[in-house]
Amino acid sequence: MDKFAKKIIDLPKRLLVEEPLNLYSGIRGMFGESSKTAGLPPGSAIYTGFRKDTPFNIDLFSYSENTLEEKNNISIEEVINLPQNGNFNWINIEGIHHAEKVKEICDAFQIHPLTMEDILSVGQRPQIDDTENYLFVALKMLQFDSKKNKTLNEQVSFVLTKDLLITFQERKGDTFEAVRNRLRAGKGRIRKEGLDYLLYALVDTVVDHYFIVLEKFGDILEEIEERIMFQGQKRDFDLLYTLKRELIHIRRSVWPLREVISKLERDEIKLIRKHTRLYIRDVYDHTIQAIDSVETYRDFISSLGDLYQSVISNKLNQVMKTLTIFSVIFIPLTFIAGVYGINFENVPEFQWEYGYAYFWSLLIGMAVITLGIFKYKKWM
Amino acid sequence: MDKFAKKIIDLPKRLLVEEPLNLYSGIRGMFGESSKTAGLPPGSAIYTGFRKDTPFNIDLFSYSENTLEEKNNISIEEVINLPQNGNFNWINIEGIHHAEKVKEICDAFQIHPLTMEDILSVGQRPQIDDTENYLFVALKMLQFDSKKNKTLNEQVSFVLTKDLLITFQERKGDTFEAVRNRLRAGKGRIRKEGLDYLLYALVDTVVDHYFIVLEKFGDILEEIEERIMFQGQKRDFDLLYTLKRELIHIRRSVWPLREVISKLERDEIKLIRKHTRLYIRDVYDHTIQAIDSVETYRDFISSLGDLYQSVISNKLNQVMKTLTIFSVIFIPLTFIAGVYGINFENVPEFQWEYGYAYFWSLLIGMAVITLGIFKYKKWM
Amino acid sequence: MDKFAKKIIDLPKRLLVEEPLNLYSGIRGMFGESSKTAGLPPGSAIYTGFRKDTPFNIDLFSYSENTLEEKNNISIEEVINLPQNGNFNWINIEGIHHAEKVKEICDAFQIHPLTMEDILSVGQRPQIDDTENYLFVALKMLQFDSKKNKTLNEQVSFVLTKDLLITFQERKGDTFEAVRNRLRAGKGRIRKEGLDYLLYALVDTVVDHYFIVLEKFGDILEEIEERIMFQGQKRDFDLLYTLKRELIHIRRSVWPLREVISKLERDEIKLIRKHTRLYIRDVYDHTIQAIDSVETYRDFISSLGDLYQSVISNKLNQVMKTLTIFSVIFIPLTFIAGVYGINFENVPEFQWEYGYAYFWSLLIGMAVITLGIFKYKKWM
Amino acid sequence: MDKFAKKIIDLPKRLLVEEPLNLYSGIRGMFGESSKTAGLPPGSAIYTGFRKDTPFNIDLFSYSENTLEEKNNISIEEVINLPQNGNFNWINIEGIHHAEKVKEICDAFQIHPLTMEDILSVGQRPQIDDTENYLFVALKMLQFDSKKNKTLNEQVSFVLTKDLLITFQERKGDTFEAVRNRLRAGKGRIRKEGLDYLLYALVDTVVDHYFIVLEKFGDILEEIEERIMFQGQKRDFDLLYTLKRELIHIRRSVWPLREVISKLERDEIKLIRKHTRLYIRDVYDHTIQAIDSVETYRDFISSLGDLYQSVISNKLNQVMKTLTIFSVIFIPLTFIAGVYGINFENVPEFQWEYGYAYFWSLLIGMAVITLGIFKYKKWM
Amino acid sequence: MDKFAKKIIDLPKRLLVEEPLNLYSGIRGMFGESSKTAGLPPGSAIYTGFRKDTPFNIDLFSYSENTLEEKNNISIEEVINLPQNGNFNWINIEGIHHAEKVKEICDAFQIHPLTMEDILSVGQRPQIDDTENYLFVALKMLQFDSKKNKTLNEQVSFVLTKDLLITFQERKGDTFEAVRNRLRAGKGRIRKEGLDYLLYALVDTVVDHYFIVLEKFGDILEEIEERIMFQGQKRDFDLLYTLKRELIHIRRSVWPLREVISKLERDEIKLIRKHTRLYIRDVYDHTIQAIDSVETYRDFISSLGDLYQSVISNKLNQVMKTLTIFSVIFIPLTFIAGVYGINFENVPEFQWEYGYAYFWSLLIGMAVITLGIFKYKKWM
Ligand SMILES: [Mg+2]
Ligand SMILES: [Mg+2]
Ligand SMILES: [Mg+2]
Ligand SMILES: [Mg+2]
Ligand SMILES: [Mg+2]
Ligand SMILES: [Mg+2]
Ligand SMILES: [Mg+2]
Ligand SMILES: [Mg+2]
Ligand SMILES: [Mg+2]
Ligand SMILES: [Mg+2]
Ligand SMILES: [Mg+2]
Ligand SMILES: [Mg+2]
Ligand SMILES: [Mg+2]
Ligand SMILES: [Mg+2]
Ligand SMILES: [Mg+2]
Ligand SMILES: [Mg+2]
Ligand SMILES: [Mg+2]
Ligand SMILES: [Mg+2]
Ligand SMILES: [Mg+2]
Ligand SMILES: [Mg+2]
Ligand SMILES: [Mg+2]
Ligand SMILES: [Mg+2]
Ligand SMILES: [Mg+2]
Ligand SMILES: [Mg+2]
Ligand SMILES: [Mg+2]
Ligand SMILES: [Mg+2]
Ligand SMILES: [Mg+2]
Ligand SMILES: [Mg+2]
Ligand SMILES: [Mg+2]
Ligand SMILES: [Mg+2]
Ligand SMILES: [Mg+2]
Fold first, then answer.
1. Do D117 and E348 touch (CB under 8 A)?
2. Using the beta-carbon criterion (under 8 Å), do A343 and E340 form an inter-chain contact?
3. Nearest to E170 by CA among E27, E32, E37
4. For residues D91 and D58, is the Cβ–Cβ distance under 8 A?
5. pTM exceeds 0.90 for this model
6. What is the reported pLDDT for D29?
7. Which residues of C touch D214 (CB under 8 A)?
């Protein structure tokens, strides 16, 4: 089996050494605390997530094909009073656990209280809502923090109006940085195509990041596979369990996403131009591919679990066989030795001239017979 | 593994200490005794549930945008002779095991005998029925009684006519208290919007309470996970089993609910104004989310079951290894000692000058060889 | 755990004592012997079931709103020559293994040979067939024979024409007795509403009887659960297996029933008046509920199987631990005793003044160390 | 448990004695070698099956309502030059591994090369193809060879034109014999109704034969069930495995058959008269029933597998308990005996007057205590 | 059991000897590294696969019914400047990891950047895209390299325009060689029918090669089955695991293929003539058959896994039984021997005249009783 494993595996071993159990985001990690709003009127401004360490921050990208203005950390007033100069405006908001500030902005742009509740209720499934005045999309963002070797997840919501795209995030992150750089560089289509294309580009980036996480998972799985094939320790099963749990969470993010993006492409959504749909179709394909990977990994994890069980059974069998072989050989021998340790007065063998030789012949004969039986039964 | 577990878990440990097995509502808990009506004509007034300790009680909320009249424990006559003054009337009935009183009310408001049977047959699936004169909805209500640390379930039925909403409950409870308070306060939409909105608000509250129960389940699961990772005792598996059984019941409540609420939103139901449908769509999303949580928890429970099995196998292997190592080392040693306890007359070794030293060398040599084999086989 | 189990369970224990294995109807019990008709022309009159002990018997109920004539054990001729006096006629036939008699009746009423074959082929799935002249419905009837503590199943077929309802049964039974009594009493709707309503009432009774069987199953499951929680003996798993097998049969009866009743309600069947459909919708709901219970019980049985396995594993671990602890403590002690049973001539310890005390110190010291290790490893 | 099993089982035991493992048709048995045609142009005349021992043979039935001509082993020329005298012609061909002869016939009747490929590619799923000139149907035929106690499978293809039905078989067999006899007898509908009815009769016979096989399976399952309940030997699990594998093959035959027959009934196929569809609907029901049996048996096999596992676990537990009880009782006793076998000089007990009695009291006391503990733990 | 296995199996044993673990293509083998394009603008020319050892190569087949020109290793310029002489042109490109060259060609033929991205993103699911100017199809190609006894997989993309078919492959291979030979031979339809027929022929060849791989899998499975029936070694389970993993990959290739080919047949694709659809329907059937085989093999693997577990359990039981029988027989005997090895002064038995005979009677009596118990319990 050595050759098999050696031949194939050249993946970096760092992963398992640097404690992939860091992946842990807990069973309840993605669910939030929806119960907080129980019995309250709809549209109550209550953040239901666990992430509360990000300062509230608003960034603005105001651009047209030839111009770009980038402002960081602007005030709510500035957002509300954006000049209507024909530019495309992208407002990125971080730290939505400051629920009252989110409410202020939503009220200013006439976002319905139910939509606002959805922005703040971060335990929800990805969703899409096409209202009269705006298009609302909420997704789960997954990132692999390669420094901490850890998966992060957060909800990101998009509100697209005619001249404005607002994105709401739970915490600061660099997922959108590549898109920002494409805006800054001004090359390619991105500055020419308007806000529906920007929405596409951001959603595409979110989906692309799923693959980063999934490929890490694939690497870890390959490494676990190798370990189990050779040894199979309890730790490997713990790892499998952890990956499985994380995949359950990713599944919750990616299956409804499919439906959301499919609606984005198929429904006659006013704010998405026919032209942009071509690109959204491409994101759709990527989403299907991500789903496919998740399901395939689940299959692998389940198969690896079976493999682990077979390794463990095999080990137990080895151990029991060893014990049995040893016991079965020595038990009769020890018995014979015991017999000739008796203190009766008239044991004829004791006086035999070759008594001791006879004794050893008996022992060796016994051992030979037992070993013969084992050979016959193919236990040795 | 210590670090892993320590790092993450800061959930209150009370849960498992205060006996979560209290959750127990039995395998048949939600099914009722439908067989009671076997062979009877349709519309027989027979309560099929197990809860018979609640006194019969009728409460009335009569309100308009500016007025509110609240009356407790009114008589059936008062209900039947409600003044038709343009007010919205909500009649809440508790203790439906008084089947004949329910019949009296149903007859007075011309509720069809089959509907009445559905109100009293509490083992049924959630359902909706849009008749010519009224809209009928039946749901399962789940509550977490945080004093007794226990889940309660009951059937709640709604009959909505043009100027009346009647709710039928099996026992007294505070699930609707938050809605009552919103009515009393008179703030927000609730007094302005009419009875279809009140129906929405009550259904929303029922669904919201599912999350309270589910989040408790999530907390318990996280704690069981930690316990299994460290130790894995039979009690943990019993707990897993109990949670699984409860989830089976919750599943029975929440999957058909989805269909019910979807009909409420989509079908052209006369008594639900288009305006209110927006809110019902929101409850629909919450129902999907509850289903999602239930299925996810089922997945977790199944994975945790596998993890438990692997912990148990591992323990058995440890135990067997210990036994085997001890046995295999000492069995040959004991045999040798037995050999030199024989009473033959001419055992040359007995007379050797260094016989005893030779004996110990034999023992130690044997032990060293066996240990060497164990080391080689990586069993120690 | 005591408290948990004691608190909840107050179900009669008789069930398991009175040998619920009586439930047994065999793996092939419901399939019949369809192969008997292999290669024969369609419409061959061959009964494919196993029940052949019921004498052939025909009963007649001839009724209108105000009159009722009940005749037992009438001849085939009487059936064929029924007077056409505007009365509703219900002919109930028992003992269809008298295939040639069934053929005679079918021929007289121009029932198609393929329908006749379906009446006699009792291993089939429930089905519905709306022909030009009559409506054909075949169901599975389940009864719980509470005397013998046993489930009985049989096929019952309905042929509904304009002025006649014929029911075909495999054996005598009291399932329809309640309906007969309602006909005799003449109260309620049943005598006024005609034969489609009678069909409904009979089908409803059949479905109602499913719940009697299912509730027995629920009781047995609760008892098995308790037994497994405490002890977990092989017999409990055998019981689980038996219940599972019976549920597989019930499933075969109830899933296609759903489709049959749904067609009865939805298709524009000439002989079912719109008015009666309301009632059939109610039976449909009950069927769904029965399906729901079956699936839920299957879930429970599977979970209880897992629980049983965990109980068994736990027991094996206990046994092995006990063996290991005993062995590991005594093996070294026995070895030491063996060592000092040797017969070498110059063993210095033998002459020591406190040799015997030294020997015991050695034994006790050894035992203390081993016990210490067990304590440390938390095995005791 | 004795009573339970005795009471029910009266099935012939011959089955398992006469080696049901004969059932074996191999994992690849039904797949054939489709790879043989890889890269070849469509319509290459290559037989992909394993059965090559049947001589090529053509039989002709030429009939009308009043006449019947039966010819065996006719030449290809005769087939091609059939007189067009208004008779219905059924040509049955056996031994299709003579691919070039099949090609000759297909070319003569203008059967498309792709259809010819389908006739020869016997590893395919059942299929139907309605072309302009003919209707093509391919099925899997299952037979139970009761002499060899063995299942046989083969592909049978039907080509129906206006005045001709050609059937292609892999080997000689008596499945169609009953239909031939009905043709010969000339009673009933078969000679009057034409070739679409003949097609129905043959397909019906094929489906009927499924039940013969499935009922044998049911008998074997019942017997295995009984054996496992009592003993549970490895051989029983091997049998279960073999049945499962055969069912996998049958499943492959019967699921697509459903679709094929459904198309035969529903699509507006020119060559099937409306009148005949009634009969095809009946075959459809039988197909559903066969599917149902297959799925039910799969369920049973899986449940029986679990039962077997529980029997095996139980046995292992019994064995381990016996070992443990024996060991735990004797280990301390043997230790004590060993202690008093030491050769120290001053062992006070040795000189005691009642030393030997004291020794036995010690042994008996020890044994009593150990047995007491076992009793308390309910291990004995 | 010997007879059973001997009778059936005559498959070449080479397979398992020549190390089928070579099949290994790794868990991530088919996924590629989609994450490479994260955040990049759509249509970035980045190859995401692992195969980078094939030199870039372009081959041209330019043909009409009567002419054929074949050119190997032509330059990109030649491709771009193909003469428009009414010939059908097939351009086959190998080595697409030269992404910039692929881009150059795509740009020249106005292939959309998103399509180009799909050609280079080899971890994707099979897909089809019908654009205004061309039809795009991407498939997974599986080959069995019979020299290395190894499965190879690669993505192959087809771009079909009015007068051009371009195929993109990851590496050199002989899958298409049979089609090339048919083109060279000029027999049959292939040179007459145009490029849509050529597309069909190539896709058909790809699907045909699936069966070669699947039939190898079937052979290996049959051999594993035999091995497990006889022995059941850990290596067999490893093999099963490996096959399962490969099937997971094949599944990912073949399920979406179904959808792709179905669209090719059903959608009104301009470039596919009605005439050719007949042939595509045939490929569709083959795809279904491949899916069917994959699912069937998965079923078999899972059943074989269960069989393996039962074999292993059985072995463990045998081992434990042997240990137990030996221990239980000798433990009391050894105890008795120990008893009579004591050194007490007044042991009456020691002085008995027939003491030694008495001692042996005791031993033999004890052994007989124990053996009797074993016989009774049917353990021997
Ligand atoms: Mg709420
Ligand atoms: Mg919401
Ligand atoms: Mg962020
Ligand atoms: Mg992308
Ligand atoms: Mg690897
Ligand atoms: Mg793409
Ligand atoms: Mg694409
Ligand atoms: Mg009823
Ligand atoms: Mg009802
Ligand atoms: Mg209440
Ligand atoms: Mg809510
Ligand atoms: Mg935790
Ligand atoms: Mg929403
Ligand atoms: Mg037939
Ligand atoms: Mg029929
Ligand atoms: Mg009856
Ligand atoms: Mg009912
Ligand atoms: Mg109970
Ligand atoms: Mg379906
Ligand atoms: Mg209802
Ligand atoms: Mg039986
Ligand atoms: Mg081909
Ligand atoms: Mg074909
Ligand atoms: Mg044949
Ligand atoms: Mg039939
Ligand atoms: Mg029928
Ligand atoms: Mg074989
Ligand atoms: Mg991208
Ligand atoms: Mg290639
Ligand atoms: Mg092909
Ligand atoms: Mg075909």
1. no
2. yes
3. E32
4. yes
5. no
6. 66
7. 31
